[in-house]
Amino acid sequence: MIDDLGFYKVGNEKFYDKLPAILRAQQLKVDMEWNFNRYAFSLIDWTSEPETSLDEFYKIRAHQLREEYDYLILFCSGGADSTNMLYAFLNNGIHVDELVASAPISGLRDWKNPHPADIKVENTIAETFLTQIPFLRMIEQNYPNIKVTLHDYFEDMLNYKVDDWLLKSGDHIHPTMAGRYNLEKYVRLQRLAESGKRVCVIQGIDKPIICRYQDHLYQVFFDWLYNNKYNSLNHPNCVVEFFYHTPKLPLLAVKQAHVAAKFISEPKNKNIYNMMLLNDERLIGKAPKPDLKTFNTHTYQRGIVPAIYPSIRTDMYQAEKPDRMWMGKHDAWFYDLHKNTRVNQMIMWDLDNLFKSLEKKFLQYCPVRGLMGLKAYRNAYCIGRADKFVSKEIVLNDELIIEAPDIIFNDGVLSTI
Questions:
Q1: Nearest to 386 by CA among 211, 208, 214, 216
Q2: How far is residue 375's CA from residue 358's CA, in Å, rounded to a whole number?
Q3: Where would a tag sit more exposed on the chain, N or C end, judged by fewer CB atoms within 10 A?
Q4: pLDDT tens for residues 166-209?
Q5: Which residue from 382, 364, 379 is spatially nearest to 280, judged by alpha carbons?
Q6: What percentage of the chain's residues is helix, strand, coil (to nearest 5)?
Q7: For the CA atoms of the chain, what is the radius of gyration?
Q8: Are 70 and 201 in contact (CB under 8 A)?
Q9: End-to-end CA distance of the chain
């Protein structure tokens, strides 16, 4: 089951966490590879759009999870991915047992809410008060049969242990990640698993990433999107599932990719097309025109929401996407309010030691922003020629041509370009 969440291979050894894999690869003086459901995804035709609608796929996926597990826990941030995931259950009369929303409530006593129009990444925590908590209240009022838990992960942060928080952070090495998904303190969940009930923690990961390489479009899976998967409860009866990207329903990912590709290729959405995720400074072949100081994935990620999640409101407060994997500005509340704490000192010490221990080839740099995080690994699948999706009214610029994805499957055969 855990293989469905992705794993690394270093020689013949398998790793489920990235840092141990990197350290082993350094020791053996080899590179490593990441496998994200490669076998299951290679058996389907990514160039053919399924006739089934996205809403029907979401319904099928919700039914799959309800039928397989006894107790369903959905992590819900109030953002588009998790909200659409929740609607897949609610709109189809499929019961959800518990909704967990993570927020560092006890660490925000001296924090001041910004103006709702200020969506800078430094104000990401404002989503807690302007979007997440109001959404939870709505669920409590309208769905009293769903248990709603506000998970105060600041309590977990105060108990971080040296280096342990690093392993639980995956690629997202910043103060909050290791606490955000940790449900160990909820004894009732442990007892539920011990009673023999199968508990599933479901994460709404993630939007389709469409990129262009020469005259084709690809669906690309990046490891950093899936590396917050460590088990929330350390019990064999508790598992983590991704809602959207799973070998149990691979055609859902294919459908999302085609819908997103067609949407961003419409003339009115040219600004989204020009901001496809891979057209940034981390992977440039030919440098894109946008100012690298401000270029981010916000336009693309927010822009495709109406296409893949048509039931989601787009007027909710959401800050810009995080600017980096390591010590990103989205945790500005912690840097501002808790910079003199033991926890922050330990985090900075551990991170400094980690940086010194890693070879440069396993790190990712931006010419403007500097160190971004760990080297990204990816699997990619061709969904068709660009002109299959793009209107004749759009001119495809050479600046949008990126470097080749590492891995491409054609007709089920693994090849590289």
A1: 216
A2: 11
A3: N
A4: 988 989 999 999 999 999 999 999 999 999 999 999 999 989 99
A5: 364
A6: 40, 15, 45
A7: 21
A8: no
A9: 31
pLDDT, mean of residues 408-413: 34
Predicted TM-score (pTM) of this structure: 0.89
In terms of Cβ atoms closer than 10 Å to its own Cβ (0-12, 13-18, 19+), residue 26 is middle
Dihedral sign, Cα of residue 313, residue 315, residue 319, residue 324: positive
Sheet containing 147-152: order of strands: 147-152, 98-103, 71-75, 199-203, 238-242
Report the distance separating Cα 246 and Cα 61, nearest Å.
9
Helix axes 54-68, 80-90, angle to 10 degrees: 70
CA–CA gap between residue 300 and residue 135 (Å, rounded): 24
Identify any residues that bridge with 102 across adjacent strands, giving them in sequence order.
151
Q: Measured between alpha carbons, how far is 227 from 170 in angstroms, rounded to an integer?
A: 5
**Among candidates 88, 83, 81, 89, which has minimal Cα distance to 138?**
83
Judge whether 155 and 8 are in contact, CB under 8 Å. no
Amino acid at 358: L
Close Cβ partners of 374 (under 8 Å, ≥ 6 residues apart):
18, 19, 22, 171, 173, 224, 325, 358, 362, 363, 364
> How far is Cα 265 from Cα 124, in angstroms, rounded to an integer?
29
As a residue count, the chain comes to 417
Are the CB atoms for 223 and 5 separated by under 8 Å? no
DSSP assignment of 333-356 equals HHHHHSTTSHHHHHHHHHHHHHHH
Model confidence at 125: pLDDT above 80: yes
Q: Is 236:190 a contact under the CB 8 Å cutoff?
A: no
Q: From CA 256, how far away is CA 247, in angstroms rounded?
A: 15
Q: Is the dihedral of CA 327, 205, 132, 305 positive or negative?
A: positive
For residues 272 and 301, is the Cβ–Cβ distance under 8 A? Answer: no
In the block, residue with structure tokens 């023999």: 196
Beta bridge partners of 239: 200
Give residue limits of the domains in the chain. 2-415
Beta pairing class for 147-152 and 98-103: parallel
When pLDDT is cut at 50, 70 and 90, the band that residue 157 belongs to is very high
Between CA 391 and CA 205 the distance in angstroms is: 29
